[in-house]
Amino acid sequence: xxxEFIYELKGIRKRYVTGNTYVRVLTxxxxxxxxxxLKKGEFAVVTGSxxxxxxxxxxxxxxxxxxxxxxxxxxxxxIHSRESGALVSKEASAxxxxxxxxxxxxxxxxxxxxxxxxTVLENVSQPAKLHRPGRGFRVASETLCIVALLSxxxxxxxxxxxRNYYLADGNRVPxxxxxxxxxxxxxxxxxxxxxxxxLLAYSLYFTLLRRKENIAAGSSVKKRxxxxxxxxxxxERAHHFPNQLSGGERQRCAxxxxxxxxxxxxxxxxxxxxxxxENGIKIIDELSRLGRELNKTxxxxxxxxxxxxxxxxxxxxxxxxxxxxxxxxxxx
Length: 332
Ligand SMILES: Nc1ncnc2c1ncn2[C@@H]1O[C@H](COP(=O)(O)OP(=O)(O)OP(=O)(O)O)[C@@H](O)[C@H]1O
Ligand SMILES: [Mg+2]
Fold this sequence. Notes:
CATH architecture of the largest domain: 3-Layer(aba) Sandwich
CATH superfamily of the largest domain: P-loop containing nucleotide triphosphate hydrolases
Order of helices and strands: EEEEHEEEHEHHHHHEHEHEE
Radius of gyration: 28 Å
Number of domains: 2
CATH topology of the largest domain: Rossmann fold
Helix content: 40-55%
Bound molecules: adenosine-5'-triphosphate, magnesium ion
CATH class of the largest domain: Alpha Beta
């Protein structure tokens, strides 16, 4: 599968099952499922009537929901691979999906979902605090523990051969080693060495882990959150609470929060849905600027034609437009 695509969806179908009722939302033409491709840095807009499946599609793109059938790749990783209910080939695990979602996808919901008891700065910082150390870091730490275990076996073997060498030669065993070996024996020395090295490895592992978390929870996060608030024009409001902001300002705060972990993709579900026209335009201008200056791939769901016209008039590259109707997604 080509790496240049951030998203590659083939034959994706989604239906909800409630008791005996099926709600077929994404079906594609003749129930063949929908196809969708998006390259890095592209700006896509999805429109369609209420209930047509826009949020369903966005939730699938955001790895928040799973399709019933079809194949989906995100950044070349196979996320879903299901035909007729059966697994076709290996899919990303739930843990992998959560990791990708947290590190690579920023989501802006129609309702801002800011936490009311936290300041603007704390809300924007929130995703960084959830950021877990990456798989590479965990593999490195676990490898360190295995190396420690192997080293301790090697240590025990060396101690044994040193002792045998001295005893075979009729030489005196050097006093330090002799005392240790006399007291605990070869097996005991090896055991102590193993425990010591394992404790050392684990303390290193947890120190590094904690250090990583501290960095996430510390001053670098605050600095980044303030930079993002500056980008969306809310730096002066960092210590205010969401109920002290206007609707447009809350959405801009939600956009800053979505950018906290520097995701490659920004998915926006009617981010201007509850705003007046003027504030809606400001949000569109902001998204276009972020797409352009930070090279984000953006998928925007909106009903409003005037906002799409505004976007097309200011965005420097062609906007990819899609329409969902009767379960099918088609470019317009
Ligand atoms: N969990 C669910 N269980 C059953 N049906 C659902 C579920 N979630 C969504 N649906 C149905 O799927 C259809 C598509 O919903 P979706 O939220 O994707 O529409 P939408 O295009 O985003 O609509 P809107 O513009 O009103 O936000 C709707 O008919 C909805 O009732
Ligand atoms: Mg919706």
